[in-house]
Design goal:
The chain is mainly α. Helices cover about 40% and strands about 5% of the residues.
Amino acid sequence: MYQLEDSTLLAQCDRIKAMIEETARTPAYQKHYYASLYHHWKISSPVQLSDIREFEKKSGVELPVEYVYYLTQVGRGGACPGTFFADFNPMRKVDEGIRRVSEQLACKLAETEWEELYGGDSDWEGDRTDGTISLCAMDLTYIAYLIVTGPQRGRVVYMDYDCDRAPMYPKGSPDFLTWCENFYSELLAGYDVTPTWKFMWQEPGNAHALIHAFQNTKDQKYRKEVIYSFCKFKDLSQEAYQFLESLRTSEWREDASEVLKKFSMI
């Protein structure tokens, strides 16, 4: 039974609510693509714990705790990183697939691994959306889902509507609340996260956070995406410039040079 007494999660919900309100008050964000078409930075009223219990009883799954905190402390729907969160309705029809674990989402796979197992002429016939709740559309072909069963439970994942690409996991977002907070933090910091597909793959945080992320992973694709994440800044700090300049004597010289070119520094 949920007690909703976790001070860390309550504080995180308060920050998210405050950032949504600040975003809604800022004229510069009123023309944001999805806001102008769908949610206008408005959120619906929160739900009651009784609604959560009703849904869990009917669906046979326990919702990730961070999602429960969002629904009960922030809102049942509305503004989000993509199109909009549909209002949470405990009475809606639930597909029995929500109880199953998707084979594709049981573990994170590299693009090459995923292509070998599920791409092209693969005869895999499972449902990639098993064990998930659809959250919102992120661009023309990607939809964000919340994983509610299996080893990846609690994480947000982006899946290609056309099934042409491996599932993508937002960087620096181990759970639903952090994913939401990262989006509004990036937006209010003035970083370039629109169109929304940019937010999907960029590393969150300031230049120091990006450098730390690059240095603390051995995943080559991840490192490359971190390098290009510097493009989200309006200007490069001295720390960022020195870091990118140092990469120009490494295997990343072409990528670093491309980013520096954006800032007219080569």
